[in-house]
Amino acid sequence: MSENLEVGAGPADLCALSVRLQDAEAKRKDAEATAKGLKELEDKLERELLDSMLDAGVKSFRREDGIQVLRSTTIYSKVTDKSALVQALQDEGLSEYLELEPRKARLNEWVREQLEKGERLLPGLDFSATTYASFRK
Amino acid sequence: MAKKQMDSQGDSLLHDSVESESSEIIVSGPSALAVPSAPILNWEDPSDASQDADRTIPYFKLVQHTSEEAKSRAADVGDILSSTGINLGQWMVIVPLWFKRQASKFTDDRQLECQSLDGTTGSTYGACADCEFNYRQWGKDPLTKKSLPPKCSEVRSFPCLVITSDKVQDGASVGVIAVGFAKSSASVGKQLITQHDLTGLPFYGYRWKIGSKDKAFPKGSARVFTSEFQGRNPDDMMLQCQEICRSWAGASVAMPDHSEFGEEGSSETVDGEAAPF
Asked: From CA B175, how far away is CA B197, in angstroms rounded?
């Protein structure tokens, strides 16, 4: 087996393959750089849109092209005091939220419902939220 | 006002819509409580406040370990002080009236470099949207790949009423006062906005207990605001707040100079969150 062949001196198919590989790698890096820049722009524009909607008191609007733009929120429950929460859930007859597997998702849903009703959360429980722009036809 | 009537206004709030030729806009406020997120105010440069502004909104300050008030033992760490000289103690229950987005940039030695009182135009660098320090623009550390907060910090400012506090039982004596949440306390401001988002009620639809806690950072610990949702504001109080918002609409208002927030100077990253040092 030959090693250290001069460029252009190797078998044609190996040279061609290596050139294609290099080319693909360069294109991927370009695309990643472009995607990174676009993602930063996308994040900035989303913040600008969400802030502008909040400032204008607009929760959703429909564009001329029929697309509805919404200011959407995902709620995440946050356990700040586990023992206090466990006790409170038991006191309120909500022990099913203590089940391990569905607990997190169900708690998230329960916290959202409480907030939508304007009800206080249980001791040991807090929330965080992510707001994002969503689009519907 | 009877509760039933108020509830019906609350319902209409969720379904109000304004039709126009080109778009459908769902407004997040009830017709009878149709105040926008903030009254339409003419914000003034605080340096001109004594001459031009109709009113000045005092503000809260959270006493830090490094605050002069703590060093001189005039106040305890975690006390909430008003710029009018009232010590509210370790917590207060507030009703936010409206929300105002602001922004400020500090130098590494914690000097105020640029501030925007409307979140749109900065005092030094001009239009925020075009600024290289745009408070909406997060970066990434090329080495650690951790998210880096913007060099300029958004301040979510809420003029509010105090219902009661650790040391002041009758909050009415405090009047309208602003509390600003920035950097490590930003999540509190987000919670207030989220509640408004989820229900569509005005900010003054709900009460919040604001306190503080110590939070550790690589260069030490700092006091950061905490919040605890206290549920719906009574109807009569909501109407009172509505009147206050209306009475402020159109006024020239001076907000505090952001150098007052200087203790939350430069920043670094802790799990994607801006630290106060």
From this structure: 26
* CA B61, B63, B66, B69 torsion-angle sign: positive
Over residues A47-97, the pLDDT tens digits come to: 999 999 998 888 899 999 999 999 999 999 888 888 898 888 888 888 877
Q: Are strands B55-56 and B252-254 parallel, antiparallel or unpaired?
A: parallel
Number of cross-chain residue pairs from A and B with Cβ atoms under 8 Å apart: 88
List, as ranges, residues 20-59 from A with C-beta within 8 Å of B.
40, 43-44, 47-48, 51, 54-59
Residue numbers in A near B38 (CB within 8 A) = 55
Q: Determine the residue type at B214.
A: D
Query: In this complex, do B22 and A64 lie within 8 Å of one another by their Cβ atoms?
Result: yes
**pLDDT tens by residue, A92-125:** 888 877 765 546 788 899 899 999 998 889 998 8
Q: What is the spatial distance between Cα B208 and Cα B229, in angstroms, rounded to a whole number?
A: 5
pTM beyond cutoff 0.90: no
Whether B122 contacts B136, CB under 8 Å: no
Query: B87-125 burial, b for 16+ CB within 10 Å, e for fewer?
Result: bbbbbbbbbbbbbbbbbbbbeeeeebbbbbbbbeebbeb
- The predicted-structure confidence for B66-87, as pLDDT tens digits, reads as follows 888 999 999 999 999 998 889 9
Query: CB-hemisphere CA count at 13 Å for B11?
Result: 6
DSSP per-residue letters across B79-146: -EEETTS-B--S-EEEEE---EEEEEEE-TTS-EEEEESSSSEETTTEEGGG-TT-TT--EE-TTT--
Helix, coil or strand: residue B27: strand
Is the Cα dihedral A57, B38, B163, A108 positive or negative? positive
Amino acid identity of residue A46, one-letter, is E
Distances (CA, A) of B263 to B68, B107, B127, B134, B169: 11, 12, 25, 21, 28
Distances (CA, A) of B20 to A64, B37, B113: 11, 21, 43
How far apart CA B165 and CA B163 sit, in angstroms, is 7
Tokens coding B190: 């987000």
Q: How many angstroms separate the first and last alpha carbons of chain A?
A: 62
Chain B nearest-CA distance from A35, in A, is: 14
